[in-house]
Amino acid sequence: NEAIDDGLVRANRASGLLKSILPPKKRRHLKDPDPFNREERDLFLEHAESVCSPSESMLLKVMVHSGMRLGEALAMRRENFDPEKQTYHVMESFKRGRFGRTKSGKSRFVDLPGFLVDDMLDHLRDLKLESLKRGRGGGIDLLFPDPDERGLLPFSQRKVQGLMKKV
User: N or C: which end of the chain has fewer CB within 10 A?
Assistant: First the structure.
């Protein structure tokens, strides 16, 4: 499908292949979601702080406490963060190296707990200092820029998924 989007091929020859391999949805054994309990969540975040960069750790913390999808958290921008109202306006997602619409195609507001807003403000201060050190001025756009991409793109989903497995 990516090759179709990029104009490299006209059709996906594997389209519909899974329908012939998998049983009908009614007969599949789907696993129920198994979210972290509080102890597991706290242990996960504590360990993330010890093995991740501060920016990576903050990204994981935002995802855990806001409930945002990975692509939505990666696409977070300074202009959509309102510390006074303790909200973030989710307007886009980042996937496969591109910014695009959210899964539902609609924007929404996400309430943020006070402690997370405080941590995000500290994170913004650190981003600004880093930007000034690198001679880029103090303007901040992306909240989770990938240093490997010179700050122009956020971390990739694959990189964050690997990070989560590591933690």
Answer: N
